[in-house]
From TrEMBL, chain A:
It is found in: Cytoplasmic vesicle, COPI-coated vesicle membrane; Endoplasmic reticulum membrane; Golgi apparatus membrane. This is ER lumen protein-retaining receptor. GO terms for biological process: protein retention in ER lumen; protein transport; vesicle-mediated transport. It comes from the Eukaryota. One of its GO terms (cellular component) is COPI-coated vesicle membrane.
Length: 212, 10
C-alpha cells in the first residue's frame, strides 16, 4: 500500500458515497446515468468474485463489499425507488456498444485464459469506458448539477491517483500490470475534458454547462 | 505469492 493507492481508494469511496447521498437526500436521480451505474455494478461484480476464493486483507475485503453494496444500492435507487425521477430519454447510450467489444477484447488480450482472469480483465476494460454513458448524458442535457460534478471529479481523480500508484509500485516493487495501466490511462484521458470544465467553471462557483 | 500480490488492488 502507498499514499497514492490509499488516497485513490478514498477518492473512489468518496465519489460512491457522494452519489448515493445525492440521490438519497434529494430523492432524485435527475442528471444521473443509470446505465453507467449498471456498468459499475457489473465492473465490481466481475472483479470482486475473488472475495469467494482468496482473502488478501481486511481492508481489501471491506472496501470490496462497500463498493459492491453501494453500486447495487445506487442502481436500486435509480431504477426502483426513485424511478420517476430517472431521465431515461437522455440516458440513451447503447450499453451493448461497450459490453460486447470489451468482452471480446478481454478474451483476446489477457494475462491468462482462466475464468477469473478473463472476468478480471473484462472488469478492467469495462471500468475504463463505464463513465461514457454519464458523460454522453451530460453532453445531451448540456449541464450537470454541481454535486454530480463533484462525484465525477472524485471518480476521475481515483484512477489518476492509481496511475501514480503504478509508477510508485514499478519503481519500488518492480511490479506493474500493463493491462491495468493502459486501461487506467484511457479511463483518465476520458475525464480530461470534464476536468478542464470542472476546474475552470465549477471551482469558480459557476454551474457546469456545455455550449449546447 | 505473485498471484496474490498482483491482485491486491481494488
Amino acid at each position: 500500500m502507498n499514499i497514492f493507492r490509499l488516497t485513490g481508494d478514498l477518492s473512489h469511496l468518496a465519489a460512491i458515497i457522494i452519489l448515493l447521498l445525492k440521490i438519497w437526500k434529494t430523492r432524485s436521480c435527475a442528471g444521473i446515468s443509470g446505465k453507467s451505474q449498471i456498468l459499475f455494478a457489473l465492473v465490481f461484480t466481475t472483479r470482486y468474485l475473488d472475495l469467494l476464493t482468496s482473502f488478501i486483507s481486511f481492508y481489501n475485503t471491506i472496501m470490496k463489499l462497500i463498493y459492491i453494496g453501494c453500486a447495487y444500492a445506487t442502481v436500486y435507487l435509480i431504477y426502483m425507488k426513485f424511478k420517476a425521477t430517472y431521465d431515461g430519454n437522455h440516458d440513451s447510450f447503447r450499453l451493448e456498444f461497450l459490453v460486447v467489444p470489451v468482452g471480446g477484447l478481454a478474451c483476446l488480450v489477457n494475462h491468462d485464459f482462466s475464468f477469473l482472469e478473463i472476468l478480471w480483465t473484462f472488469s478492467i476494460y469495462l471500468e475504463s469506458v463505464a463513465i461514457l454513458p454519464q458523460l454522453f448524458m451530460i453532453s445531451k442535457t448540456g449541464e450537470a448539477e454541481t454535486i454530480t460534478t463533484h462525484y465525477l471529479f472524485f471518480l476521475g481523480l481515483y484512477r489518476a491517483l492509481y496511475l501514480f500508484n503504478w509508477i510508485w509500485r514499478f519503481y519500488f516493487e518492480g511490479f506493474f500490470d500493463m493491462i491495468a495501466i493502459v486501461a487506467g490511462v484511457v479511463q483518465t484521458i476520458l475525464y480530461c475534458d470534464f476536468f478542464y470544465l470542472y476546474v475552470t467553471k465549477v471551482l469558480k462557483g459557476k454551474k457546469l454547462s456545455l455550449p449546447a | 505469492e505473485t498471484l496474490k500480490k498482483d491482485k491486491d488492488e481494488l
